[in-house]
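new request in #modeling-help
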Amino acid sequence: MSDDVHDRWRRPEPGADGESGDGVPAGSIQRPTIRDIARAAGVSVSTVSHVLNEYGDISEETEHRVRQVMEELNYYPSALARRLVMKRSYVLQLLLFAVEGLHHPFFYEVTCGITSEVEKAGYELVLGVKDTRDRRWRETLRRCYEAKVEGIMLMGTLPSAKVLAEVRASGIPAVMIDIPFEGPRVTYVTSDNIAGARRAAEHLISLGHRNIIYVDGYDLPDEYTPLPTISVARRIGYEEALRAHGIEFDPRLVCIGNYTQEGARSAVRAKLESRSDVTAVFAISDVMAFGAMKAVRDLERRVPGDVAVVGFDDIEAASYVRPALTTIKQQGELMGRSAVCELLRIITNPKRSPKATVLPAELVVRESCGASRLSPQFA
Amino acid sequence: MSDDVHDRWRRPEPGADGESGDGVPAGSIQRPTIRDIARAAGVSVSTVSHVLNEYGDISEETEHRVRQVMEELNYYPSALARRLVMKRSYVLQLLLFAVEGLHHPFFYEVTCGITSEVEKAGYELVLGVKDTRDRRWRETLRRCYEAKVEGIMLMGTLPSAKVLAEVRASGIPAVMIDIPFEGPRVTYVTSDNIAGARRAAEHLISLGHRNIIYVDGYDLPDEYTPLPTISVARRIGYEEALRAHGIEFDPRLVCIGNYTQEGARSAVRAKLESRSDVTAVFAISDVMAFGAMKAVRDLERRVPGDVAVVGFDDIEAASYVRPALTTIKQQGELMGRSAVCELLRIITNPKRSPKATVLPAELVVRESCGASRLSPQFA
DNA sequence: TTGTACGCGTTATCAA
DNA sequence: TTGATAACGCGTACAA
């Protein structure tokens, strides 16, 4: 019936080659609407809608006809229109704050976990990567508001405390990833950074080390002081371990690596040169641990023979390097999944006060500390 | 005027603590609409719309009043509604096909390039990561159709040829990343894989190597045969280099590493054991090159002393490993940017036939071949 | 079981 | 310079 409709909605490219025999749909130009389907099938729009949403109150014959027409016209309902009328966007936003040149592999892992869970829930994930130092984040948030995203996940290197505050004040459900920050509809997921760092330090201590360099990420500007970053947490774990073993914490053993390899390299080298009594390094990221290893070699010393090194994250490269890096494993993918689950929970259940998630961080013993027991991961 | 409107649209949380003094907006529940603004400002909706879109035909006084009301009510126009009426989604989709456990760091780099460019263009980027072996990709594509995405970028490990064909047939503008596949509104961006591979092989040859193991990614099933993958391109470059130097190509020197470290490790070890005349390995990904290095050590031989190794990609870890990996650098971020630019071009200019982009792939000499000339990247 | 009519929050057209 | 009103494509009472 009404064949002109078929004509109206031809495939975008009438098929210059044999390819288009497949007859696949879409094309962002102009597509058939639910009304076209209704007309072509000789029914009303609501009938089509009922078929589409499987109300199950349409006669088998009608349904069949409708579906057939949808097929023929390559009809795909507009999510845009549906979202508008449903007053729901089904969109989650992932905001990644990164520092230029710092492609932290860990983020990628988390992102994979996030996407798979988002998809499973029938949502869409919008990805935004911003430079941490870019002042235009307000613009980015405005776009979230306009897009009516239902939830935000925020991850990365030191987003300004103002960003966090604004997200919280926005009232949009949010889950911070590895950023301990809470609010009415805001929570976070993180690794057990304190325990992880403690375990790392204890591992070194158990091997006899007492003077352990601590390579921190950033030297926090004052605006962050109230913000308990992962950096702070790991520092606590480190100090706890020292205390538990009667070792006094020496602030002069702390240095700043800026989360980069080169930053850690020069910082550690400087420390090693000034302190000949140091026999170990604990860097709070694997990348910085790599830098530490280079620093040791710069001084013609050996890992782990002269200086033991422990990292944090367990990125893939940790098993590639030589000697393979002993480190604290963070479960990135799981972290991503958890973030999404928690976010969806906040969205669906506004009353319920959100709960922070803390994932275990386990020690992975490889070669960089010289303690080569029972590790199948060995190179 | 009309103060009840102010009451209706309070901030989500009336501010239990001092925080909300900031007065920041949004909240996905129920927000003021353009009509509310119009009412509160005592003007018509079209006036508000004109202010919003800066038509410049509104009296300064009115505009000021409207803006003030928008501010007070924390009004943010709905992108959903706008998109519906504009018949444009302003959404680009990135489809990443990955194999479980294979978190290729290179993808992350490309993604960063993509996001920054997408944002700059005022678009939104929806991210979807699918397992290559997942048969439900049709579902994923359906969601693209329903969301009326304006363009698709496709990247990753061996998406089935069917996926590519369907994307092409869909008529949605698309840019494949590192997948040489074209169509009416489909093109690709890639590195100069042939030249890169040739350069890698030539580097080895120039160092005196003649029996070079070639570590390929996958053994392609028949369905891919017509598809010129990067794998095929690199193989061509490899063979070209051999031919140019009068070395006969020996198919028995080719092995399959499945793009994983362990895969390459065992494959290369087997080859090395059976062929004592081999003095070099060219792996078409860095990760596989790492596996090759392990294989060499498994046999108590040394890199580069006994066996030289070259990789492809230049991921970050390439500079971390010891010896640092000599490899072919792909410009991931640039690749992402180029993909977006080309995609936007296809979208805005439907007539113009798209043009493939080939980015240079340069040799980065480090330590794994023993040729340590003029390289500042050295560890 | 099917159809009518209204609303979702915009922009665009036209008239005032 | 401003305002009414019709789209945009869909979901959903409510009526038939």
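bot summary: Residues 33-35, 45-46, 49, 52-53, 77-78, 80-86 of chain A lie near DNA strand D (CB under 10 Å from a C1').
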